[in-house]
UniProtKB/TrEMBL annotation, chain B:
It catalyses: a 2'-deoxyribonucleoside 5'-diphosphate + [thioredoxin]-disulfide + H2O = a ribonucleoside 5'-diphosphate + [thioredoxin]-dithiol. Provides the precursors necessary for DNA synthesis. Catalyzes the biosynthesis of deoxyribonucleotides from the corresponding ribonucleotides. Tetramer of two alpha and two beta subunits. One of its GO terms (molecular function) is ribonucleoside-diphosphate reductase activity, thioredoxin disulfide as acceptor. The keyword Ribosomal protein does not apply. Binds 2 iron ions per subunit. The gene is nrdF. Gene3D superfamilies: Ribonucleotide Reductase, subunit A (1.10.620.20). It comes from Occultella gossypii. This is Ribonucleoside-diphosphate reductase subunit beta.
């Protein structure tokens, strides 16, 4: 699948991240959940939305599907920023997927939010992304 | 106990090579990977710190821990177990047994804290207080009532409320001490409990949402109304319980913001949007930072001038799957 969009996101079957992205009401593409689904190939710059898998020592914090998506060189070349979701209950691992992706891909870590995010989070990210793309 | 024990009606040998819901395996792996025991935490390093607390501060802290012991006992012996007969997959049943066991580990870990810091007589006094405190007993009664009820989804709501909301009037205290560089080893232990409760609340809330997917619109509305009613009932009780514990130290309002923040998270775990607005959930930054050192970092690139940004701090948590 080839797409032109500003948001790429991953969400597990819990659908938490998808619900946040839905509330942004911006075009978005989802990284497939299962290995047998066709891999997502992007053709335009995007901001990645990634949930942090909780707990432990931080290993496995970035969902495997997201790693697989970023291992594709073209996909990786088009990432412009990352937004991470998490839960402060995970202490120093809170939203650490954002740190990991930002560092691996050398892109800005734009924002983080908890679980489904609040109305303020949705507002800030919507406004912020608009500005972010304008300035680029 | 007079009521008849409800058990799973039919058991088939669990096959972990046939997973119906990936979330079961994912959460099982996460929970077993997070396994810990209180004996690993050097609580005795807190003895000196404990003696710097005033009598009122020690009393509050001891009572907080008996209250938490009570909740973990309920969740370990009744709550998580009561969810087993409602499980949709055999792996879900197994996850609940893990949750039940870990709750018993949590309950026992408070006893480790007690035996390290206080005398047997003080421990007995604190347990007596917990048995006599009306608001603590009421909290237990409300939840236990739903565990004994006949509605599997209401049981999940009550369980998620306990995991994601009712503990936090208690969790505030060790985070408060940690933010003042006191009882830091105790706080480390409590952080392990907080981490576990997050996975429990997330999972039970997720199973609730899966059940909702198959429900009629009327049933969905019923469960939503029920959830918010229960939250209000519990919140009102939590406010009073918080006053009992924290009024002598003047911390009550600070704790209440923390309660509302966590009430919103409990609702989110159940798939609903938070109820309390931002200005009512502004947790004291010192408490938030004690909970998660990353929470107060400025990851709001959008609010800045745009001239500088964070590229993510160094993390020594490489997964072998990365290919670049």
């Amino acid at each position: 699948m080839i797409i032109v969009t500003g948001i790429v996101y991953f969400s597990s079957v819990s659908e938490n991240t998808r619900r946040f992205v839905d509330r942004l009401e911006l075009p978005a593409e989802r990284i497939p959940l299962r290995a047998h689904e066709p891999a997502l190939k992007v053709k335009a710059p995007y901001v990645l939305f990634v949930p942090t898998y909780g707990g432990g020592n931080g290993r496995g914090a970035v969902p495997k599907q997201v790693i697989r998506f970023l291992n594709d060189e073209e996909n990786r070349s088009l990432i412009r920023g990352v937004v991470a979701a998490g839960n402060t209950n995970f202490g120093s691992a809170y939203c650490i997927a954002g740190d990991i992706v930002a560092r691996k891909c050398q892109v800005p870590y734009l924002y983080n939010f908890e679980l489904l995010g609040t109305a303020e989070d949705v507002h800030r990210v919507r406004e912020g992304l608009g500005q972010f793309w304008l300035q680029r | 106990m007079s009521e008849k024990l409800k058990l799973v009606s039919r058991v088939t040998a669990i096959n972990w090579n046939r997973i119906q819901d990936d979330k079961d395996l994912e959460v099982w792996d996460r929970l077993t990977g997070n396994f810990w025991l209180p004996e690993k935490v050097p609580l005795s390093n807190d003895i000196q710190s404990w003696h710097t607390l005033t009598a009122d501060e020690q009393l509050m802290t001891t009572r907080v821990f008996t209250g938490l012991t009570m909740l973990d006992t309920i969740q370990g012996t009744v709550g998580a177990v009561s969810l087993i007969p409602d499980a949709v997959t055999p792996h879900e049943e197994a996850v609940y047994t893990n949750i039940a066991f870990m709750e018993s580990v949590h309950a026992k870990s408070y006893s480790s804290i007690f035996s390290t810091l206080i005398s047997t007589a003080e421990i007995d006094d604190a347990f007596r207080w917990s048995e006599e405190n009306e608001n603590l007993q009421r909290k237990a009664d409300i939840v236990l009532n739903y565990y004994r009820g006949d509605d599997p989804e209401k049981r999940k709501v009550a369980s998620t409320m306990l995991e994601s909301f009712l503990f936090y009037s208690g969790f505030y205290a060790p985070m408060y001490w940690s933010s003042r560089a006191k009882l830091t080893n105790t706080a480390d232990l409590i952080r392990l409990i907080i981490r576990d409760e997050a996975v429990h609340g997330y999972y039970i809330g997720y199973k609730f949402q899966k059940a909702l997917e198959k429900a009629t619109p009327e049933r969905r509305q019923e469960l939503k109304d029920y959830t918010f009613e229960l939250l209000f009932e519990l919140y009102e009780n939590e406010e009073q319980y918080t006053e009992d514990l924290y009024d002598p130290l003047g911390l009550t309002e600070d704790v209440k913001a923390f309660l509302r923040y966590n009430a919103n998270k409990a609702l989110m775990n159940l798939g609903y949007e938070g109820l309390f607005p931002k200005d009512q959930t502004a947790v004291n930054p010192a408490i938030l930072s004690a909970l998660s050192p990353n929470a107060d970092e400025n990851h709001d690139f959008f609010s800045g001038s745009g001239s500088s940004y964070v590229i993510g701090k160094a993390v020594n948590t490489e997964d072998e799957d990365w290919a670049f």
